[in-house]
């Protein structure tokens, strides 16, 4: 089976997951793409795919976007990108992943400790976008700061708009990677068409998902993604420690 077909099927499935629950698809797609693409194009192509996926999701869910939240969120996101981009490569990724995973767990199950409901949208935009420049796993983080009292359609639509903004800013900020994405126009086209179809299927599933079941599924999806982040961060720290000790032995 060709790379184009494999990635298109993966994009269809993962965008359906994201359109139904609001999160999860981006992390799954990254894991799949990592098995099929070289590291030099993995992150830029995944970022472009997520940007296109969220544009499609916004198109499907545009009637449910809370623009009163998104406008100040965007201002904060731009400021967060500008502040963090110069130091983005200096933050240890392993520790960042562990801290992010713990934050998401607390925000999901003990949100009252963080008083997330009191965060101004501009602060949410600045903090989550700044962290996304370093950590990359933006979906669960943004979902954790959205107001819990919103209905599922508003949650998914507003989250999609927030992620479109963040991925767009990240593509601009990391354009210095000097990767010619248009050399992979066929993959981009396949990913775009597949995510468009997946978003429409997911939107239909979302419309038939009871509110109570949506909130339960969302909480546990966030939990599994957070635990995965902590596990990956600890594994990365162990690997870095091993490399450090090996380097000392060879000195």
From TrEMBL:
Q: Which residues cross the membrane?
A: 95-113, 125-146
Chief localization: membrane
Which UniProt keywords are given for this protein, alphabetically ordered? Cell membrane, Membrane, Transmembrane, Transmembrane helix, Transport
Q: In this record, what's one Pfam family?
A: TauE
Membrane topology field: Multi-pass membrane protein
Cite the InterPro entries for this sequence. Answer: TM_pro_TauE-like, TSUP
Q: Where in the cell is it found?
A: Cell membrane
**Highest rank taxon of the organism:** Bacteria
Q: What family does this chain come from, according to its entry?
A: Belongs to the 4-toluene sulfonate uptake permease (TSUP) (TC 2.A.102) family.
Q: PANTHER family per the record? A: MEMBRANE TRANSPORTER PROTEIN, TRANSMEMBRANE PROTEIN YFCA
The protein here is known as Probable membrane transporter protein
Species name: Limnobacter humi
